Amino acid sequence: MARIRSLKSVNRRINRHDPVDSEYTIQTIKGENLINLITYGSDKCKTSGTKQTLLFDENIAYQLYKIFKSEYNFHD
């Protein structure tokens, strides 16, 4: 599991990946709301189970919200 502590924009080429299933959990721990995002292997992957787990606090979630809103033209 990785708890994201910072985000910064970088200019790197990304490759399109196969779609995967994902789940999320929202939990309050010691008064802090956390979102846990869990991804699983693609259909091509021979092993099952969790592949990546990312933990977001309110600060990182807000930064992602602003990025999504800007990049995808989301409107409130």
Brief write-up:
The chain has 76 residues and is α+β, with helices and mostly antiparallel strands.
Please give a structural write-up.
There is one protein chain. This protein is an alpha+beta fold and 76 residues long. Helices cover 20% and strands 34% of the residues. It has one helix spanning 58-72; strands at 2-3, 22-29, 32-40, 50-56. It has a 4-stranded mixed sheet. A hairpin with a 2-residue loop joins strand 2 and strand 3. The longest helix is centred in the C-terminal third of the chain and has 15 residues, at 58-72. The protein is globular, with a radius of gyration of 15 Å. The model has no long low-confidence stretch (mean pLDDT 89).
Please write the string of helix (H) and strand (E) elements.
Answer: EEEEH
Oligomer: single chain
Across the major sheet, the strand order is 1-4-3-2
Q: Kindly estimate the percentage of residues that lie in beta strands according to DSSP.
A: 25-35%
Descriptive labels:
single chain; 1 helix
Helix-strand layout with pairing:
Blueprint: E1 2-3, E2 22-29, E3 32-40, E4 50-56, H1 58-72
Parallel strand pairs: 1-4
Antiparallel strand pairs: 2-3, 3-4
